[in-house]
Amino acid sequence: MSAQQRHALDALLRSVPRGDEPHTPAEQRSGFAAAMTRPAPDDVTTRRTVVGGRPALELEPAGAADRGRLLYLHGGGYVLGSPDTHTGLAGELAARTGLRATSVDYRLAPEHAFPAAVEDGLAAYRDLLETGTDPRELVLAGDSAGGGLALATLLAARKAGLPQPAAVVVFSPWVDLTLSGESMRTRADADPIFTEAGIRAFADLYIGAGDPGDPLASPVFTDLTGLPPLLVQVGANEVLLDDAVRLAARAGAAGVEATLEIGAGLPHVYQGEHGRLEEADAALDRAARFLTAHLPVPVAPVRPRSGEEDR
Fold it and tell me: What is the secondary structure of 259-291 as a DSSP string?
């Protein structure tokens, strides 16, 4: 990433609403949607659906495998975002894996505080299993709060006695709502979008009267034994860096196959800059290969990035 690209990316990200700004959740959601929404790739068809009793968006890449499914959980601090704001990112991952993806419109805070989002994630996961998806052919992914929610969903599934999926990928996961990671302070000047105060505001809205250290809110504080192979991607220039580092370490200590990738000089959920940032495309390709490598069924080839077809 060139210095010019870095400056342009930082300027874009600094335009996204922060939780510490004096706006209502509705105003923040509108600004977030305007700044973050990107369309699905041309070769991905989208349609509205319902999963686990919640609205959802299904994304089907051309030539999708008959079997295999990706469950995607969007970011936005548990307060912002929707499948629509993350159509581009979820669609890119669907296209690169060759899997049909379902992106869930889980309930948001403060209207629906913790553990509403976890209940919706678990309901969607359970619905996919009960309607015929083999857990060995199911993978999960999520970004930021959605990354934390993906792990919380799997912990809830484990508690409910449900089988685990084949693999999970998380981008810049928010897995510590107590904000105890050192990078919350050491990366404060480098992070172009988040401040500790802003993240705390989102945490307060989501947790409400609950405990921010609850494992279903902060999965980094619990035993991760039995979870599926995990890929964690995070930027070095973000306050959530230590969330990702501690998550991978805790998973590995619990016997989980855990891979951690730290992108030098990169910000929060840099994968969302696909098509504009080479590192984003490369990270999505690695994420897609990780997911498909853990599936027992053949899937369509990963779609090459623009310009790679002739290499």
Answer: EEEEETT--TTGGGGTTT-HHHHHHHHHHHHHH
Compute the Cα dihedral for 268, 271, 272, 275 and give only its sign: positive
Which is nearest to 241 in space by CA: 290, 194, 289, 291? 194
> From the candidates 82, 103, 144, 183, which is the catalytic residue?
144
2 an active-site residue?
no
Annotated active-site residue 112? The verdict is no
- Based on the residue annotation, tell me whether 238 is a catalytic residue of this protein: yes
Exactly one of 74, 86, 268, 274 is catalytic; which is it?
268
Q: Are 151 and 173 in contact (CB under 8 A)?
A: yes
pLDDT tens string 257-308: 999 999 999 999 999 999 999 999 999 999 999 999 999 966 655 665 544 4
What is the per-residue DSSP string for 157-199?
HHHTTPPP-SEEEEES----TT---THHHHTTTT-SS--HHHH
Rounded Cα distance between 220 and 308, Å, is 37
Residue 61 DSSP SS3 = strand
Q: Which domains does the chain show, CATH number per domain?
A: 3-293 (3.40.50.1820)
Q: Given the residues 60, 92, 238, 273, select the one marked as catalytic.
A: 238
Structure tokens at 35: 């700044």
